[in-house]
Amino acid sequence: GTRLAPKEKLDIPVLFMPDTMKMYEAVVVIHVMRENGENWPYEDSAESNKDLKSSVTVGENGGIQGILWVYPVHGIPEAPQQKLVPVCCRARQRVEKRVEVLLTGVVPGANAMPAARNSAVVNTNKPANIQEEVQVTDGFSTTVEFLYELQYHSNDIKSQLGALVGMHLIQRERDTESGIITLIFNIVFAPNKPMRNEATLVVQCTTGGVWKFPMVFIATEPEVDDVINIEAVGLNKESIVGFKLTSQTR
To answer: Which domains does the chain have, with CATH numbers?
Structure first.
């Protein structure tokens, strides 16, 4: 029953307040009719009928009684921001660090979707009386799956860190009482020069929930390669010492 003047704009607020970490779907439908109740005339043809069939309502006299706009809405819940995870290493060295992340609010029994990118499948090789990882729906077993990736804040940071950081999921488990899922990643950081860059570990459940874990990669000054001693051969005379430098790249 909202009246709109010609060229007037209408804001339609959509409120999303999820109670579980899964994707919600809805459709916003806008139906517009003339205020005087008259229909819009249009030429009836096979092509126009086909195009207008899904976007208009046709009146008894053949005119257009109303126009429809349909907007699909996907609500994807995102967990609150987590604490910053630091990974530190001296330049020209290599460090491995285990990072443990907690996923709260995972919906048990939700159907899994095909995984893209890196997928973490919750282990189901447990006794038959434990059913928290496998849910049965309509005779088919579905497994809770997760997608994970390391996202960089810019292309420059990606070009610096992309080849220096490796990430691999090594363990996943679920607490039967709280329902919290724990994922343990092995992070490898091998910097070649001092730097400080940030990235975000993004974990997405195939049912729609998203968890983000900010990380900072810090490479400190490398160790001193060697000490060069130059002995003087006399006053106002040059002393020379030679040493080799080897480049790791071309």
So the answer is: 24-75 (no CATH), 77-107+143-222 (2.60.40.60)
Asked whether 123 and 172 are in contact (CB, 8 A), the reply is: yes
3-state helix, strand, coil in the chain (%, to 5): 5, 40, 50
| Cα 131 to Cα 237: distance, rounded to the nearest angstrom | 84
For 196-239, how does the pLDDT look when each residue is reduced to its tens digit (9 = 90+)?
999 999 998 888 889 999 999 999 999 998 899 999 989 999 99
CB-based contact 137:111 (threshold 8 Å): yes
pTM of the model: 0.66
Q: Which amino acid is at 14?
A: V
Q: How far, in Å, CA of 246 to CA of 204, rounded?
A: 44
Closest CA to 28 of 71, 87, 61: 71
Look up tokens 């209408």; give the residue: 10
